[in-house]
Design brief:
The chain has 171 residues and is an alpha+beta fold. It contains five helices and three strands, in the order ααββααβα. The chain has a three-stranded mixed beta sheet, covered by helices on one side. 20% of the residues are buried.
Amino acid sequence: QQMADVAPLNVVATRKPPVQDRRDGEIRSVVLPQELISRLNIIGRQRGFTMFALGATCLATALSRAWGAKELIIGTQVGGRDDPLMLGVIGPTTNTVMLRLDATLAPDFWEFASHVRSVTADALANKTLPFDEIIAGARLSSQSDLPFGYEVNFTLQSANIDTDQVGSIRS
C-alpha cells in the first residue's frame, strides 16, 4: 500500500546511455574514515539509531536536496535466513525491500531519521513478501521505465579496511 501512486525521481544521467538497454547502473562505494564511523556510532547509540538508519537518512537527505524530490524510494537488500523454509538452502538468501521516504521531513535531520527508522521497520516486517508481488501491487505505471520500482539502492557494509591507505573506493 505504501508504494501506491509513487512518482519517479528525475535522475539526471552523468553519462550517455549505452547503445543496448542493459538495465545496468553505476555502483559507487565509499569507505568512510574509522574516526567518522566511531563518532556516528556514538551519536547513533545516544539517539537510538543504527548505522543503517543514519546512512540511509544521509543518502536520502543528499538525494532530496540534489534532485529536489519530495518523495524517495530507496531499495535495499535484507537477509532471509529467519524464514524456516530457507533453513535447508545453501548459500546466501536475500530479498529486496523498498523504502518510501517523505523527503519533506529532510530539513530536520533527526525527525527525518525517525521517519527512515519507522519506514525501515515496516519494510522489514514485510520482508518475506516476494519482490515481484510488491512491484505488481505498487501501481508504478508512471514509472514504466523503472524495472525494479526504485532508482537508488543503499547497502551498508562493515569492513576492516585501513582508510589511511585506501582513501575512498569507487567501483
